[in-house]
Amino acid sequence: VLAEDAIKAAIEDYRSKKSKA
């Protein structure tokens, strides 16, 4: 569960940064 949560957070952060750029 923790792993999935961490991955989800990482994906959201990646998309957020990509969207800003």
Automatic annotation (TrEMBL):
Q: Which domain of life is it from?
A: Bacteria
- Tell me the protein's name: Fe-S cluster assembly scaffold IscU
Read off the lineage from the record: Bacteria, Pseudomonadati, Pseudomonadota, Gammaproteobacteria, Moraxellales
